[in-house]
Amino acid sequence: MSSLNQFIPSPVIAVASAYQTHLGGIDVFICFAQIDDDNQLLLLLRESHALRVGDLVTVHLDNRTGVSEYDAELSVYRLSYKGRVTALNETDVTLSPVEYQVYYGISVALEYRAPGYEFPEDPRVQNPLPCTPLTATPVMDEEEHDNKVGVLITKAQSQPHTTVMAFLSSTDDDIFFITLPQTFKSSLMKRDNQCYFAIDNRASFTFENYVEWNYSIITGRVHQIATNSALFNEVRELFISKNPWEVGFFSHPDIEMYHLKAEKVVCPKR
User: Fold this and answer.
1) What sign for the dihedral angle of Cα 157, 18, 59, 87?
2) Is 80 exceeded by the pLDDT of residue 208?
3) What is the pLDDT of residue 207?
4) Which residues pair with 153 in a beta bridge?
5) What CA–CA distance (Å, rounded) separates 131 from 195?
6) Bridge partners of residue 19, in order along the sequence
7) pLDDT band at 270; cut points 50, 70, 90
8) How much of the chain, in percent, has pLDDT values that exceed 70?
């Protein structure tokens, strides 16, 4: 088994998420992750948790330490890690890998699937997303202009799914993102439209001793923006202005635009 340490520094800031199987709902943590030689993860949480041995946890990590922001090619290593809890105490959690993929740009540099593991089938029906309640383009948050991407956390079977996404955010904590309808994340949102979005603040905060300051977490329900609306066209132009290298993608005729209407904000900058 190739070592993840050759791609990701350790310890590293991580976004971890898990279902509260015995409480209902989902927990999202900003934490440090220590990568062992056998590719187990030791999560160093900054708060107590309700995890149990055997629970499944999804973790996003990247090698952005010392890099203020992603560039156009996403030329940092990014790791989507699905693990199972094998040991824990009040603030530390050890995970053994079930499946992971290391990405560089849009290419997979390393992947692993535990022997006997099969991705769970998802019998949930896909339904059209509700239409956004917005009728006009909101005022965008200029403080987030340097934060090019965040981590979208959606509800897959067995454990959460994480995806790095370009985004826009408003001063009222609305989150906007764009994808194609055939993507996995799109199918998940159409099965359950509650999701979380972790905004990477490392363009503004790099205080390693205050790990939770490096992200803001927003949770809410996802809505869709009609492609024939003025709102769609105005927000798309704002996406192109923020991420001009993505103009080809944002101009694709099949894209869908989503609006995450915030219900709760965990904002470390306060």
Assistant:
1) negative
2) no
3) 46
4) 162, 196
5) 16
6) 26
7) very low
8) 85
Tell me the C-alpha to C-alpha distance, in Å, between residue 112 and each of 39, 117, 118: 10, 10, 12
DSSP bridge partners of 30: 15
- Is 175 a residue whose pLDDT tops 80? yes
**Could you read off the pLDDT of 38-57 as tens digits, one per residue?**
999 999 987 778 899 999 99
Q: Is the peptide bond before 268 cis (omega within 30 degrees of 0)?
A: no
Question: What pLDDT is recorded for position 50?
Answer: 84
Q: Which helix H or strand E contains 187, and what residues bound it?
A: helix 184-189
Residue 251 in 3-state DSSP? Answer: coil
At residue 1 the predicted structure's pLDDT band, cuts being 50, 70 and 90, is: low
Least confident among 18-22, 190-194, 260-264: 18-22
Of 220, 196, 218, 219, the C-alpha closest to 269 is: 218
Joined tokens for residue 13? 């800031």
E strands in 121-214: 149-155, 160-166, 168-169, 175-179, 194-200
HSE-up of 1 (CA within 13 Å, CB side)?
A: 17
Is residue 153 within 8 Å of residue 197, measured between CB atoms? yes
189 in Cβ contact with 128 (< 8 Å): no
Beta bridge partners of 96: 84
Bridge pairing between strands 149-155 and 160-166: antiparallel
- What is the sign of the dihedral through the CA atoms of 177, 179, 183 and 187? positive
Q: Which residues are CB-neighbours of 185 under 8 A, at least 6 positions away?
A: 152, 154, 161, 163, 179
Q: How far apart are CA 167 and CA 151, in angstroms?
A: 10
Strands 194-200 and 215-225: what pairing?
Answer: antiparallel
